[in-house]
Amino acid sequence: MQMGIAIIGSGSAVPAAILDNQGMTQLVDTSDEWITTRTGISQRRLASSGESLTSLATAASLEAIAAAGITPQQLDLILLATSTPEDLFGSACKIQAELGATKAVAFDLTAACSGFIFGLVTASQYIKTGVYQNVLLIGADILSRWVDWQDRRTCVLFGDGAGAVVIQANQSDRLLGFELKSDGRLNHQLNLAYTPEKQELTSSIEVGKGNFQNITMNGKEVYRFAVQKVPEVIDKALFHASLSVDQIDWLILHQANQRIIDAVAERLNIPQHKVISNVAYYGNTSAASIPLAIDEAVRQAKIKPNDIIATSGFGAGLTWGAAIFQWGR
């Protein structure tokens, strides 16, 4: 008998430091009105130089594991969705060690702001094929490290944080439908690119050595892409789930921009009281944004067992995807 999945616990963690829009005016020529009308963001959390992706992800994971009622030793797999690892070889194994999840295999998955959705689908495949029983999926990013704080088009958008969920084998499948997409032809619209610097090793051999640039983004094109593609991919996921828009209890999108969230909800004819948004308080936390929003809504008792949630991530790559699931076992 093929196994299904259930999402049985959530957790989140954010840095203590808050940079509000008034503080942002000290960095660039902007205003609270300019930022809020264009993005809906009022403040963002920023990691200090002493805080780490590992510490945020570990804190979020411990909350999710406790909420799920299991122990770290029961985890079979840890998936870390991130674009900002502190080790280019990956940060998931360090989180595994911090958790004491000695039985779990751990690895990073990179799909930028779509990372949580891609990770959810990846985790489900391991469970549905009977390989693993308990999977910890983490979305975590510290984008403040890669922001040009003199570029008001991007620096006002991003914040830091981590969110996590525990996914468990279940007799009935609570992942009702999904759809994943990529289009590398649009890669140049949003990226964090490596810039090689020529280094001559010998008279005939030259290598490239360097660092990564700051985040660059064509905001108008990314907005246009999201408003067009996200409703389409949610419709396809709903079709796979054999559900209609009216049957959705909650819409939780990647928290990139309130204007995008509002436009997608309007195109899908989803009323505002079904839309969960916390972008005003955290900004765009990339792969962390969806699990962070889920965890807040669960702890506020908005999301209840058996609620049907439509969620979608979209971002660099360009990548986008949607998943429809029921909360709890």
TrEMBL record:
Its main location: cytoplasm. Residues 240-327 form the Beta-ketoacyl-[acyl-carrier-protein] synthase III C-terminal domain. InterPro entries: ACP_syn_III_C, ACP_syn_III_N, FabH, Thiolase-like. One of its GO terms (cellular component) is cytoplasm. Keywords: Acyltransferase, Cytoplasm, Fatty acid biosynthesis, Fatty acid metabolism, Lipid biosynthesis, Lipid metabolism, Multifunctional enzyme, Transferase. Its EC number is 2.3.1.180. Pathway: Lipid metabolism; fatty acid biosynthesis. It is found in: Cytoplasm. The keyword Lipid biosynthesis applies. It comes from the Bacteria. GO terms for molecular function: 3-oxoacyl-[acyl-carrier-protein] synthase activity; beta-ketoacyl-acyl-carrier-protein synthase III activity. It catalyses: 2-methylpropanoyl-CoA + malonyl-[ACP] + H(+) = 4-methyl-3-oxopentanoyl-[ACP] + CO2 + CoA; 3-methylbutanoyl-CoA + malonyl-[ACP] + H(+) = 5-methyl-3-oxohexanoyl-[ACP] + CO2 + CoA; malonyl-[ACP] + acetyl-CoA + H(+) = 3-oxobutanoyl-[ACP] + CO2 + CoA; (2S)-2-methylbutanoyl-CoA + malonyl-[ACP] + H(+) = (4S)-4-methyl-3-oxohexanoyl-[ACP] + CO2 + CoA. Pfam families: ACP_syn_III, ACP_syn_III_C. Residues 255-259 are annotated as: ACP-binding. GO terms for biological process: fatty acid biosynthetic process. NCBIfam families: fabH, PRK09352.1. Homodimer. Belongs to the thiolase-like superfamily. FabH family. This is Beta-ketoacyl-[acyl-carrier-protein] synthase III. It comes from Iningainema tapete BLCC-T55. The gene is fabH.
